[in-house]
Write a structure and sequence with these properties.
By secondary structure, the chain is α+β, with helices and mostly antiparallel strands. It contains 2 helices and 2 strands; from the N terminus they run αββα.
Amino acid sequence: MRKTYAARRAALSGALSGSRAHARLMGLEAGLHAHLELDPALDAADVSARARRWVCSCRP
């Protein structure tokens, strides 16, 4: 399981690497949970919807 979670953390971090100016990813060191702090100018509902679609597209 550790390898699976490590791969998921790496994928999430990589997917957000181009967004560092607008979002800060925190909490991945703990393992299962992540906290994404968004720039106030971003639409949180839109970011959430996009993330949901991305996660669903990654599932086998």
